[in-house]
DNA sequence: GTCTATAATCAGATAGAC
DNA sequence: GTCTATCTGATTATAGAC
């Protein structure tokens, strides 16, 4: 038997899971380490054994999302022959896979600063835009891309309780429509 | 001369303006009354003369937006003959008029709880949905509406620095496309 | 690996002088 | 209408025992 009182197989993962729960319920800023510790049944000090700070704990939750999204963008840029509908479907899937982290960001966007996400988000927006309208898009194109993918975010967030297999094709239709891809409107 | 040391014509309005500034920069939760007072050049206690609590201060900033949006929905429901493009344009204008409050909500969504906005937002979503797909929408319709108006929100937020007269018509096109209004796709 | 105990700071809010 | 001064409680983080 070890010297510790709890025999959790992976306290670190449990901390991350409970922290994410609370970040979604209350937002990052409004969630204290005390609340996280209480819900698990350990003390606050135990959290500091696993993570050097609250920001580092949050970062560890967001990193898998960043890695997944970067991989999607790398692959999409390497295969320009893929259809818009395929790309949109993949973007939807990435979002759904990391719905937890993503929802926490929607609930309290100020988490972005604590996790240095702020540097990434700008890059993501640019690369995503590049996939659909190329570099130097017009204001008309920028607006349509912003609505298309901003809307995709909101749908994944708002419609979390609806069946994914029904939402997914509807979302792809809507994003295509917002972009105006199939009507040629995007060439403005 | 009055007994007060500052001769601001309307300290109450100044408090609201500075508070909104900081809510946009840092989010509601991360902004302290001390910071608001410091930026104006008064003490924290002075704030409590004008507002009974931090939540009430926030509420006073959001109420004009609520009133404006309610008025828009009332009018839209009373005039079912108005075209979708007109309605979308009006919705865009309401958002732009209250871009400050709206941006604060995007930066830190947890403000919704403190302002009792949470009861309103559900009602707004339902009424807005009703304008375009009627009651009892299918999942397909719900998804397209969520993307259309979620995207509209994001565009107003993300493209704040772009000229409104160019963004506006592009936004209307994109929302129409996301809804699938002009292609008849919404009848699913 | 988790604990107790505590430091240092900052939060929202209030009482009462002027 | 604004101030000084203070209360109360919560916060992040650390030191050191086990």
Oligomeric state, counting identical vs distinct chains: homodimer
Mean pLDDT of chain A: 94
What are the low-pLDDT stretches of chain A, counting only 5+ consecutive residues below 50? Answer: none
Number of strands of chain A: 0
User: How does the helix and strand content of chain A classify structurally?
Assistant: mainly alpha
Which percent band covers the strand fraction of chain A? under 5%
Give the radius of gyration of chain A.
19 Å
Biggest β-sheet of chain A: count, sense, barrel? none
Largest interface, counted with CB-CB under 8 A? A-B, 46 and 47 residues
Terminal CA distance of chain A: 69 Å
Q: What is the overall silhouette of chain A?
A: elongated
Level of helix content of chain A? over 70%
């Amino acid at each position: 038997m070890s010297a510790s009182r709890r025999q959790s197989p992976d306290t670190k993962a449990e901390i991350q899971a409970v922290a994410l729960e609370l970040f979604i319920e209350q937002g990052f800023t409004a969630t204290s380490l005390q609340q996280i510790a209480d819900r698990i049944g350990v003390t606050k000090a135990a959290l500091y054994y696993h993570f050097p700070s609250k920001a580092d704990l949050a970062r560890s939750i967001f990193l898998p999302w960043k890695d997944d999204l970067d991989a999607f963008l790398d692959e999409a840029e390497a295969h320009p022959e893929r259809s818009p509908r395929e790309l949109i479907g993949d973007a939807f899937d990435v979002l759904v896979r990391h719905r937890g982290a993503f929802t926490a960001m929607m609930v309290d966007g100020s988490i972005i600063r604590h996790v240095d996400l702020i540097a990434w988000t700008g890059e993501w927006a640019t690369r995503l835009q590049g996939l659909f309208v190329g570099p130097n898009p017009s204001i008309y194109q920028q607006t349509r891309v912003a609505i298309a993918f901003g809307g995709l975010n909101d749908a994944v967030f708002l419609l979390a309780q609806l069946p994914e297999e029904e939402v997914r094709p509807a979302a792809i239709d809507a994003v295509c429509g917002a972009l105006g891809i199939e009507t040629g409107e995007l060439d403005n």
